[in-house]
Amino acid sequence: MMNDMMNATTDEIRQAIRQGNWDKPTSGLANGFLQTNLVILPKDMAFEFLLFCQRNPKSCPLIDVTDPGSYTPSLSAPSADLRSDIPRYHVYRNGELTEKPTDITELWQDDMVAFLIGCSFTFEEALVKNGIPMRHNEEGRNVPMYKTSIPTVKAGRFEGPTVVSMRPVAEKDLVRAVQVTSRFPTVHGAPLHIGHPSSIGITDLDQPDYGDSVTVKEGEVPVFWACGVTPQAVAAHIKPPFMITHAPGHMFITDIKTESVGVI
Amino acid sequence: MMNDMMNATTDEIRQAIRQGNWDKPTSGLANGFLQTNLVILPKDMAFEFLLFCQRNPKSCPLIDVTDPGSYTPSLSAPSADLRSDIPRYHVYRNGELTEKPTDITELWQDDMVAFLIGCSFTFEEALVKNGIPMRHNEEGRNVPMYKTSIPTVKAGRFEGPTVVSMRPVAEKDLVRAVQVTSRFPTVHGAPLHIGHPSSIGITDLDQPDYGDSVTVKEGEVPVFWACGVTPQAVAAHIKPPFMITHAPGHMFITDIKTESVGVI
C-alpha cells in the first residue's frame, strides 16, 4: 500500500483516503503537490474568519475557500470531497475536541464553509531539496511549535497569539533558508524570526506548546516560521459552537503543483 | 500647494485631502508609499466580495479590509478616515453612478465594509526606477484598460471578465519588466499576458474599454497586467443597491512603504 501510495496521483491518493484505506499522516505523500490545513466553520463565522486570514497572511495563507454549503474545493482539487478526503478529522463542540472521525459526511451541514490553509510540508520539501535537513524528521518527531508574544491582528471574535514552528538551521545555511522559503508566501513564506527564542516570547525551546522538542546542535540557529496551527488555536480559543479541522499531520492533498505557487 | 504636497508626509497629504485642499488625481503624490483602489459595500455583500478577492488575487489584491461599520483602515493607515481622505468618490445606486462627491461622511452607514485593493501606480514606480518608461505618462493620458476573455473566478453573485491595463515595453526590457513586477504580488504582480492582444480576447488596442489609447512603437510589445478596475467592474455589473468607490485616479494613500511589500 505504502509503495502504491508513493507513486499514486493526487486523485488516487484522495480516493484511497475516501475509501478508508489510508488513515495515517500524509507527510511524504504526493511530493510536489500542496498539502493544506483545514478549518470548517458555519457561515455566520465565515466572514470574520476570512477577514482574520486576510489580516494574518503569514500564519493563515489561504489556498482555497469553498462556497457556503459546498464541500468541493473547486480551485485546488475539483474532484475532491472535503467530507471524506482527509485521513482524520477533529470535531470541536463549544471549543472541546469531542470526536476524531475519518469521515464527516454525516456531520456536514448546509451552512458550512471550508478554509484550506497553506501547510509547512511544502516549504520543508523546498528546504530539503536545497540541502537543509529537517531535524524533526531525522529524529522521528513532530516539528516543535510554540505560542509567541507576536499577536495576530484581530478580526471580529478571532484573536490570539501567533504560533510558530521551529527548525534548527546551520549558520552557513541561514541565507539560503530565507531565500528558499521567501519564494512561497502561500505556505507561510519567509521566517518570522531568526535567533533568540526569548525575542518572541518563547522561554524554553525544550517545552514546545505543540509537537515535540528537537535537538539544536552546536553552530545551529533556531529559525521560526509562522505556523498553520495559529488559525486552529485562535478558532478553538473563541469556542465556536461547532468547528471541524484536520487532525494534526493528516492534511488535505490538493492538485496544485508546489512550483506553481513559487512567486519567482 | 503642489510643491508642498510633493514633500508632505502621507498623513499631511490625507489631511489636505480631508480639508478639501486637494481634489485632483493622486498620481505622483507620496512616492514610495502604496496607493489603493477603494470599494465600499454593505456587510451583506462583504463575505462574497472578500471571497471574490481571495479567489482573484491578481486583479483584486487586498491591502486592507475594515471591520464592518469602521471607516478606519487600521493596518494600512490608522490615522485615516476613509469617508473623507480620498479626493473624489463615485457613488453607485442600483449599479448607476449617481454622485461624484469629495466626501462621503453623510453617506456612511453602520453596516459598511471598506476594501482597499492594490493599485498599479506602485508597480509603475518600480518599472520607471528600472528604466522602463510609462507611455501613458509620456503622452499625458490615462493607462489603456481592456476587458479580456479571461474570466474571473466566481464567488456568489460576483463574476465577470478580468480587466487588464496595457503598457508597451521594448523587447529588450521584457525580462526586467516581468522580474520587477513579480516582486509585488499585492499590487497585481507579474503580467497576465505578453504579446498578441487577440490571445486574451482584445480585438483592437486602439479602442480601450476604459482609459485612453497609447502609441505602441516599432520594437515594442504590448504587456498586460491584471487591473484594479476589475473588482469595480464586477461589483457594478451585479448592480448592488449601494456601493461607493474612489473616482478613477483618485486613490487612497496608505502609510505602507512600497518596498515593505516586495516579496524578495
Automatic annotation (TrEMBL), chains A, B:
UniProt keyword list: Lyase
Keyword Lyase part of the UniProt annotation: yes
SUPFAM superfamilies, alphabetized: PSTPO5379-like
Entries under NCBIfam families matching the protein: PRK05463.1
Statement: the UniProt record of this protein carries the keyword Transcription: no
Protein name: Putative hydro-lyase HNQ44_001451
A Pfam short name: D-Glu_cyclase
Organism (species): Planococcus koreensis
UniProt-listed Enzyme Commission number(s): 4.2.1.-
InterPro entries with a match to the protein in the record: D-Glu_cyclase (IPR009906), Putative_hydro-lyase (IPR038021), UPF0317 (IPR016938)
EC primary class: lyase
GO molecular function terms noted in the UniProt entry: lyase activity
Similarity field: Belongs to the D-glutamate cyclase family.
